[in-house]
């Protein structure tokens, strides 16, 4: 790194997040639905965690994995949404250099952790349907603990270089980020250094992690479908599919939202720049809000547990 870029980096002690540069006037109106979604996401996930903790019938590996998913959703929400609302309500646009890259790390790592959790949950459903007699010996509390360690370690290690590489750049093109959050693309645009490797690493690492998870999920459901279609007993097919229906809905929703976000970023020149910014915010809000609701509505044991919890209150 040159001495000029070292000087530039040292001079940038904070960034300014400019949400929706073309639509500053209606940010206060947008804050209302965002704040309601935020409260719904946090409230629903906390309720689900308390329900699973309080109900002895829910102390099973499948629900422990669901608890992990809820924890990841809560962290993703808290990493992004409070700062966005602070910008909308109090015009608090500044974010420190270190806080920006911490947010970048948390967003990248926890997004892939969520994808990895879906993959482990798909394996759980595969064992439950394809090898039901062996399920109690394979999917144990120890298995969930090891899976959680794997999920956190794998994604944290592969995501850590993204903010480190960005933080080492020289910033000489100002400190105004045309986004509500510190994404790698938005921040690296302000650098006067070559950012090819930064973008290449995030692309390769991100799609290696997400791609491998999606492939394993598809394989798991292919085996599940193959086994279910062989079952000739009336009603068994519907019952078997219903056990993984909630999980499949969440995976489909997560993948669809992610795909829309990717497409809009690729077509950035053909659409308004504010659209990808809004979609990025919603991606940290809608899945966390929807996940516990889908499981709460479609899973009888969780629904019963929530009813028991409300009676105690």
TrEMBL record:
Example of a GO biological process term: cellular response to lipid
Subcellular location: Membrane
Membrane topology: Multi-pass membrane protein
Cellular component aspect of the GO annotation: plasma membrane
GO molecular function annotation: G protein-coupled receptor activity; olfactory receptor activity
Primary location recorded for the protein, binned into one broad class: membrane
Transmembrane region(s): 30-51, 63-89, 95-122, 143-162, 200-225, 245-267
Keywords, comma-separated and alphabetical: G-protein coupled receptor, Membrane, Olfaction, Receptor, Sensory transduction, Transducer, Transmembrane, Transmembrane helix
Upper classification of the organism: Eukaryota, Metazoa, Chordata, Craniata, Vertebrata
SMART domains (alphabetical): 7TM_GPCR_Srsx (SM01381)
Domain named G-protein coupled receptors family 1 profile: residues: 44-295
Species name: Octodon degus (Degu)
Identification of the protein by name: Olfactory receptor 56A4
Pfam family, one: 7tm_4
């Amino acid at each position: 790194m040159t001495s000029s870029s070292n000087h530039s980096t040292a001079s940038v002690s904070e960034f300014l997040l400019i949400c929706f540069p073309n639509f500053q006037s209606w940010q206060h109106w947008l804050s209302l639905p965002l704040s309601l979604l935020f409260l719904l996401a946090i409230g629903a996930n906390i309720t689900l965690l308390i329900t699973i903790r309080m109900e002895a019938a829910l102390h099973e590996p499948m629900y422990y994995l669901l608890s992990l998913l809820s924890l990841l959703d809560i962290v993703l929400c808290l990493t992004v949404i409070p700062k966005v609302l602070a910008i909308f309500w109090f015009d608090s646009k500044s974010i420190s250099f270190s806080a920006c890259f911490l947010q970048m790390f948390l967003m990248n790592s926890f997004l892939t952790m969520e994808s990895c959790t879906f993959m482990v949950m798909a394996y759980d459903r595969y064992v439950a349907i394809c090898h039901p007699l062996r399920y109690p010996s394979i999917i144990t509390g120890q298995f969930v603990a090891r899976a959680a360690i794997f999920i956190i370690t794998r994604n944290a290690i592969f995501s850590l270089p993204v903010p480190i590489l960005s933080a080492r750049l020289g910033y000489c093109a100002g400190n105004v980020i045309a986004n509500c959050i510190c994404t790698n693309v938005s921040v690296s645009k302000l650098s006067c250094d070559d950012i090819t490797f930064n973008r290449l690493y995030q692309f390769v690492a991100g799609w290696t992690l997400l791609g491998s998870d999606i492939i394993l999920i598809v394989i798991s459901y292919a085996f599940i479908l193959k086994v279910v279609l062989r079952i000739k007993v009336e009603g068994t097919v519907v019952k078997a599919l219903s056990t993984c229906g909630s999980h499949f809905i969440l995976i489909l929703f997560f993948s669809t939202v992610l795909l829309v976000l990717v497409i809009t970023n690729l077509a950035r020149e053909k659409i308004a720049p504010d659209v990808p910014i809004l979609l990025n915010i919603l991606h940290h809000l809608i899945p966390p809000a929807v996940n516990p609701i889908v499981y709460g509505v479609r899973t009888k044991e969780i629904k019963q547990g929530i009813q028991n919890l409300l009676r105690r209150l």
